[in-house]
Amino acid sequence: MKTWIPVKEFSQANRLVHHISAVFFIGALLLMGYDKLFGSSDAMYLHQSFGVIVFVLYFSRVLLMSWFGKPEALGTQVEKFAAHMAHFALYSILIFMPLSGLLVNATRARETVVFGIFSIPGFAERHMDMYLLALDLHSALQWVCYLLLAAHVGASLFHHFVLKDETLSRMWGKTN
Fold first, then answer.
1. Model pTM?
2. What's the burial of 140, exposed, middle or buried (CB within 10 Å: 0-12/13-18/19+)?
3. Sign of the alpha-carbon torsion through 53, 55, 60, 61
4. How far, in Å, CA of 53 to CA of 59, rounded?
5. Percentages (nearest 5) of helix, strand, coil residues in the chain
6. Residue environment code for 101-118, b if the CB has 16+ CB neighbours within 10 A, otherwise e
7. 135/138 Cα distance (integer angstroms)
8. Would you call 170 exposed, middle or buried from its count of C-beta atoms within 10 A (0-12, 13-18, 19+)?
């Protein structure tokens, strides 16, 4: 049974969500780096807000693919399998990474304020054991996320410049 409707290229809505979420994801990474260098609580608050936006956008992206379909992977059966597994891992990490970040805040009995518009409440009391576990999980997922992102970008460039197929073009909506 096919999970997605096969189409020639991603829908305009799906492409838009992909690119906006990529900007927020990269922004969250840069803000985290800024916070580590300069200890800026403002950068951390923005990092958390960006993380919530990434979660919502990637969850929305999965829904958009179920409504509008997605193109079949190109290549051999092995390459298609690798592409499916890589995308599954990438979508999983981009959903679980923000959730683990929320858990870090919640276990410290702190709310997560999203752009000053609304907040996601933390637990009533601190749970230090759970906090340390959530922090370790978030930190481990961070490195997995970097690896998956590098693989995703590398595979896109490999398809475009070496294999010269339409993989990257389908994401930009420029297929023939």
1. 0.85
2. exposed
3. positive
4. 10
5. 75, 5, 25
6. bbbbbbbbebebebeeee
7. 5
8. buried
Determine phi and psi for 77, rounding to 5 degrees.
-60, -40
Kindly report, residue by residue over 70-117, the tens digit of the pLDDT.
Answer: 888 888 899 889 888 998 998 888 889 999 999 999 999 999 999 999
Query: In the numeric block, which tokens belong to residue 106?
Result: 């919640």
Nearest to 157, CA basis, from 147, 169, 146, 143: 169
Phi-psi region of 122 (alpha: psi -120 to 50; beta: other; left: phi over 0): beta
Q: What angle do CA 151, 163, 176 make, to 5 degrees?
A: 110
